[in-house]
Amino acid sequence: QVQLVESGGGLVQPGGSLRLSCAASGGGFSVYAMAWYRQAPGKQRELVAHITSGGSADYVDSVKGRFTISRDNAKNAVYLQMNSLKPEDTAVYYCNAQRSSRQFWGQGTQVTVSS
Q1: Where in 29-76 does DSSP place strands (E)?
Q2: How far is CA 49 from CA 20, 39, 68, in A?
Q3: Is the pLDDT of residue 1 over 90?
Q4: Contact at 8 Å (CB) between 23 and 74?
Q5: What is the pLDDT of residue 28?
Q6: Which of 23, 60, 65, 70 is least enclosed, having the fewest CB within 10 Å?
Q7: How far apart are CA 33 and CA 56, in angstroms?
Q8: CA 77, CA 30: separation in Å to the nearest integer?
Q9: What is the pLDDT of residue 26?
Q10: Which residues is 22 bridged to in the sheet?
């Protein structure tokens, strides 16, 4: 069992930056693939960024060049650096851990991009 707790969300102006953090507990963090998803009001949850246990990352096209996912296995944490934020990035952001058929979710953190 893995417990995930997100932090770092908030209100930011367009063009601004935020860094989301996800703290994991429960053991075995380094073997999990980690991801950030987001869900905007009235929309389906979508995958934003993914990082393998080996550190390979990929992104949805809409955030490429603006967002960076990283992980620190020594701290059992994964991060999402978000730059050049746009109003359309407004959503609840969720941390996800996956290994084989098992996956775990955090409770989410709200990101609002507005002037």
Answers
A1: 33-39, 46-51, 57-59, 67-72
A2: 12, 13, 8
A3: no
A4: no
A5: 87
A6: 65
A7: 10
A8: 9
A9: 84
A10: 6, 78
